[in-house]
Amino acid sequence: MPSLVRKLVGLVGFLLLWEAASRSGLVSPKSVPPASEVLARFVGLFADRKFLVDVVSTVLSWAIALGCAVVLAVLLGLVLGSVPVLRAIAMPIVEFLRPLPAVALIPLVISLLGTDAQTKIVLAAFAAAWPTLMNTIYALGEVDPQLADTARSFRVGRARTFLTVTLPSISPFVLTGVRISASIALIAVVGTEFLAGGSVGLGQYAYVWGTSGGRMDVVLAAAVFAGVFGCLVNAGFSLVQRKWVSWGPEGATA
């Protein structure tokens, strides 16, 4: 059975189970509306101007946060991965900060930056940087030493060695880290919008409809949109990885 067909079978099966559980009363239809109602509401969201404005705010914040996280993580990862002394000094700090949930820092960041877009961008960038950072550090340790020795034997300069040996070797690992970071950044942005308030954003849209209107169909429809967007982003990165860095192990992670 083709891979796409298997995925569709699993998705349809999940939706049918969801529909049956809600219709039969196994779960409360008020808390978990049937899948058919949620999907109908999902389609109707695109006619809601407020929803579209919130989506644009969330996507822009996600893109900025991911871009900042990737740039900083790759640069720091290259430094720490190339200089053992710095890595030994910095890794205890990295290992301490990496498990910290971004939402736990919401009060601190709000006190410093307020509740505007910069708060969710900073928190999402903090949460998303770690997979890319760790994969970059790990990738530098996996560069084939024979390739580096060959470059040195031909008196290739450091800049050219980096571009022709190091960069191609670490690219698959870095892109895998970016894929993971993209998902984490989206979770952090929507979660911060939901918990920290603000005036716009997908998380705030779901919060308002869930708390003031009790409309779980709208809340779940917004969650479906976030899931679909995340799947499309992940598929896009996977396509780039298969097409441009097909020589590396796609699933390699730190």
From TrEMBL:
Compartment(s): Cell membrane
Entry-linked Pfam families: BPD_transp_1 (PF00528)
InterPro entries in the record: MetI-like (IPR000515), MetI-like_sf (IPR035906)
PROSITE patterns per the UniProt record, alphabetical: ABC_TM1 (PS50928)
Chief localisation class: membrane
GO cellular component, one term: plasma membrane
Domain ABC transmembrane type-1 per the UniProt entry, residue ranges: 55-237
Keyword Transport among record annotations: yes
Keywords noted in UniProt: Cell membrane, Membrane, Transmembrane, Transmembrane helix, Transport
Domain of life: Bacteria
Residue spans crossing the bilayer: 59-84, 96-115, 121-140, 161-178, 184-206, 218-240
Family: Belongs to the binding-protein-dependent transport system permease family.
Family annotation (PANTHER family): ABC TRANSPORTER PERMEASE PROTEIN MJ0413-RELATED (PTHR30151:SF0), ALKANE SULFONATE ABC TRANSPORTER-RELATED, MEMBRANE SUBUNIT (PTHR30151)
Protein's name in the database: ABC transporter, permease component
Organism this protein belongs to: Kutzneria albida DSM 43870
